[in-house]
Amino acid sequence: MDWIGDAWQDITTPQPVPSSTTVLLTAAGVLLILLVPVAWHVARHGLTIVHEAAHATVAVLVGRRLSGIRVHSDTSGLTVSVGKPRGPGMVATVAAGYTGPALLGVGAAWLLSRGYAVALLWILLVVLALVLVQIRNWYGLWAVLVTGALLVAVTVWGSATVQSIAAYAVTWFLLLGAPRAVLEMQSERRRGRRRGVPDTSDAGLLGRLTHTPGALWVAILLLVCLAALALGAVWLIGLQV
Q: Which InterPro entries has this protein been placed in (predicted)?
C-alpha cells in the first residue's frame, strides 16, 4: 500500500511552479494544435469528453436521470438524460456543455498557480473514470480509454517536469479550446442555415428553450469562455489582478 501513500503525498504537496517562459511556450504549443486542422481534429476528442461530462454533471445536479454518453469519430458527442423537457434545469444542462471546459480550465489554472500539478492530473483521471462508466458506444469507449491511458502514463510514471508540462498543456487546451469550439459551432450553424438544415446545436436548443435567438446564446457562451481564458491566463502566467 506504499504507492497509495506516495500518491497522496504527491497530490497534497505543491510542486515548483515553472517559469513564465515555460508556461508561455506551452501555451504556444497548444495554440499551434488548435490552428492545425489535423491536430485539432484529434485533440478535439478530449474537449468533447469534457463537454459531455459537463452536460452529465449538471444534469445530475439539477435532478435529471443520466442515461449515457456517446462520443463520435467526427468529434461530436451526445449526453442523454431524462427529466423535464423545459425549465431552468434543462437550460443549465444544455448551457454546461460549451462552458464546462472553460470553467474546468479556470479551476485547473487556479490549482496550477498554487503548484498542484499532480493533484490536477488525478482530478482529470477521476473525471475520465466517471465518464467511462457512462459511455454507451464503442468509439466513445475507445476515445476515453486512450485518453485515460495517456493521462495515467504521465501521472504515474512521468517525471515531475513531464507532469508539470502536461498539466499546463491540458489547462491551456481547455482554456483556448473552449472559445474555439464555440466559434466552430457558430460556423456549423451558418452552414446548416444555408443548406436549410434544422439547428440542432446547443445554442439553437437554448434559443428554443428560452424563446430567444440562438445567436444570443452563441454570444453568451463565447463571452463566458473568453472571460475564463482571461482569468485563467492571469493565474497561469502569474500576473497580478
A: Peptidase_M50B-like
